[in-house]
TrEMBL record:
Its main location: secreted. The lineage of its organism: Bacteria, Pseudomonadati, Bacteroidota, Flavobacteriia, Flavobacteriales. One of its GO terms (biological process) is proteolysis. It is found in: Secreted. This is T9SS type A sorting domain-containing protein.
Amino acid sequence: MKNNYLKQLLVLAILVFTNMGYSQSNLPDSKNVSIIQNYLNQNKETYNLTVSDISDLVIDREVFSKNTKITHVYINQRYQGIPVFNAISSVAIKDNAVFYFANSFTGAINERINTLSPQLTAQQAIESAVYKLKLGAIQNLDLLETNYKAYVFSSGNVSQTTIPVKLVYFKTNEGNLVLSWDLSIHTLNGANWYSVRVDAISGELINQNDWILACNFDDANHESHGHGPAVSVKNEANFTLFKDVSYLADGSQYNVFALPTESPNHGPRTLLSQPANLNASPYGWHDNNGVAGAEFLSTRGNNVWAMEDRNGNDGFGYSPSGTASLNFNFPLDLNQQPALYQDASITNLFYINNIMHDIWYQYGFDEVSGNFQTNNYGNGGLGSDHVRADGQDGNGSAGSINNALFGTPPDGSNPTMTMFLWSAPANGVQDLITVNNGSLAGSYTAVNPATAAPNNLPGIGPTPVTADLAIVNDGTTTPTLGCNALTSLTGKIAVVRRGTCAFSDKIQNAQNAGAVAVIVVNHNNPDNDPAYAQYVTMAGEVNPPINIPSVFMNYADGETLIAAMQTQTINVTLQGPSPFMLDGSLDNMIVAHEYGHGISNRLTGGPSQAGCLTNETQMGEGWSDWFALMITLRATENYAVGRGMVTYAPGQSVDGNGIRNFKYSTDFSVNPFTYGITNNLQLSQPHGIGSVWATMLYDLTEAYVNKYGFDADIYNGIGGNNKIMQLVLDGIKLQPCGPDFVEARDAILAADRASTGGADQCMIWQVFANRGLGFAASAGSKNSRTDQVEDFTTPPDTDPTLANCTSLSVDEFKQSDIKVYPNPTNNNLFIKTNKSFGQVMMTVTDMNGRQVYAKQAVLFGTVEVPMNNLQTGIYILNIKGQNMDSNHKIIKN
């Protein structure tokens, strides 16, 4: 009887799901309902659940993952038809069984509720929330829809969108379930998208979070703390792109900082032709009706609408036009106000949003999983939710500089991206010196002098000064101090050591001797100075006026230059940063980070949710950092040296520390983070906590690249970087709503078992254990910041999950070692492998059993199979060799 009751309730949940607007094609079948029912009944004691706890469940969404062949079923726990807020468990069905269960249900539910009946109406709950959040006066609040204790109201002049309201039970820190009204309000100024719980009895606002995440990067002080020469960045080839010209021949061009280039500091722009990916954006980036031909000639399309919003009113601002030829090739001069290069900036914003859509589509952020598309092209999920991306935003209430925002509502509603300008690089340690020749070629840091009148010493600005270096000689026993009249320095950049006399005297003497600029070198050994005291800001009384620029250099770099000058002619350029503000839309790391919030929020707990990453130690900021690191990863990545997260917008050099506590690095002397640091309240929340998680993922990335190599084909590659990208996204889908570090780790391990049978279990465990997230690590309470326990051990050898974790030998075949793409195809097919499988026979057979193609080939690298002459239909590709026999269903368009 109990089994039948649970099954009836799950079927009822399906009917409710249908009535909420989901098509029949998205519904789970009765087989999955029965599988879940049996699993929960058999394992309820394992999860400390009772029959009552699992007697009223509703299926929130069902998602099929192509890579793992898993059907993800997201189930919300309810009490007498009222859902428990965020009590959403993730059930993974594979091979007609529960493969993985990530539990978020509450035990003893019937003992925790406070009441069954609200005293406040849904409208009164909105009024209470608006009053508590100080959102102004409500006007014309009308009820638009009603659906069993769930309502939709008009915007009421307080929200940009309609206001959905429903009854839920909210679990307090004490474990009580309080009947509440759950609602969301997107404020008129666009700064907040509040998701709140209002006590249905008292009207108090008992819980709130913001779907718009503010990534305030302003705590990095916009200084680079690297004191050596900047890393030399080669202009590597862009990621390999695959496109089918019959689909994408729209002639589009975009002059952008093409991946893997991070920013203007990391390389020049590239004019890309038709970069849209066939699989993810089959009709290009300017479509939204699924018919060949662009609907939009501006930076607007199916995936994103990029525009400016300098007045900060969240209206529909200007978007640059590519004209009928879709040519978005705009000039870019950074030595001017950003408004004057808005076409180039918005084009880059449009590009990175689209490229993030296309890249992560390959790894499972597709339509049914809740990605961002106006038209889902019949592939499931809810459409009408392209990203609205505002560039050069001027919304002061949202923090109009040094910031970026991303708001993620549930599937079917438009996410919002807000990109701001950044402060012009401030005085301080900057890359002001470039050595143009010799063994020391590269960039070096220095400090401009004080510029306060009347005793101002001119520093170096955006106008470059280039000349050979010359050490000064004042004819005394310490001639390099330059305290007296100097021998001729005509046309030279003078190098003078600090000491004895005023800075202004030294620089004046150099100017009198004909120098065009001065570098003053600290005479102190930095080992004897406090931190960063090897730099000082020079000042001094100036009379007569000094007209040449000067900078102050640290001891180590300065003495290295002086030593080299004894045997070499050193040519140097002094140049300071532009005095203009920097544009965050040109920093690809920031744009990718923000978009990443949408990925992790839509995938965690299923696409119908948007608030599953709100617990005390949630890692949303970490996933976003990692997303940005992955799309800018290069084959030459030095994981020990590491990389700073975002360096351009804060005015740092390419080897700067970025905006996190430490660079992302596998070297503990560079990044010492272990899991235990999350207990430290001095570590910021959520950014600092997130960076601990991203540190672990960066370590795991190195391990995968070391094992499987690097593949520059970010779409169809089979290298370690491709494998880790797939693994992490599969893990996010498996984890429960409100995951902690341990649950996220376990989901990644489960994803490896699902896709490879557990081939990399040992490696994954070793990486996590190395950072303290080992076998005995404990996440403690999700409501606490201070009860995490780190552990550095791996599971015992007897653990059954480690049985297949050793590396496979070269002659063993794994499905993950081969990729067949594009599929569907309307031209030729490609087979890509990451190792040689020797001589194989490739055959293509139609559905009538007729062989239409056969060829012998050595299977290694990329092999092409011609299909352009075949009729539309379904075919079977068989690849058979000594160590393999693989079948692939191919759709020919």
